[in-house]
Amino acid sequence: MRIGELATRAGVSVRALRYYEEQNLLAAERSPSGQRHYPDGAVDRVRLIQQLYAAGVTSRSIADLLPCVVDGQATPELLDRLSAERDRIDRQIGDMVSARDRLDTVIAAATANWRTGQRCRPE
């Protein structure tokens, strides 16, 4: 498939796909006229890249991880790095849950105050 079709199917911009190529996260074959052509599996690969970026994984770590996803090969060092990334994501999830819980408390208090006619005052 061509770059525009991959962008549409994966829900990303053409610019993002070009960036992934620059970072060696995605590869395309070139036609004689220079057009990029991607295999059908590229959609899943782009979605995985997007998920990992959204989780805060660096492009270098993603580049190291992708061969493991494709062929299942990993060194002990890479497994340690991946475990550390997972632990970092777990900490972020915990921090976000804590922030959400604090917001819930503030919203509940503000709602109760609003119903009784009290207003929040900036400090």
TrEMBL record:
<protein>
    <submittedName>
        <fullName>MerR family transcriptional regulator</fullName>
    </submittedName>
</protein>
<dbReference type="InterPro" id="IPR009061">
    <property type="entry name" value="DNA-bd_dom_put_sf"/>
</dbReference>
<dbReference type="InterPro" id="IPR047057">
    <property type="entry name" value="MerR_fam"/>
</dbReference>
<dbReference type="InterPro" id="IPR000551">
    <property type="entry name" value="MerR-type_HTH_dom"/>
</dbReference>
<keyword id="KW-0238">DNA-binding</keyword>
<dbReference type="Pfam" id="PF13411">
    <property type="entry name" value="MerR_1"/>
</dbReference>
<feature type="domain" description="HTH merR-type">
    <location>
        <begin position="1"/>
        <end position="68"/>
    </location>
</feature>
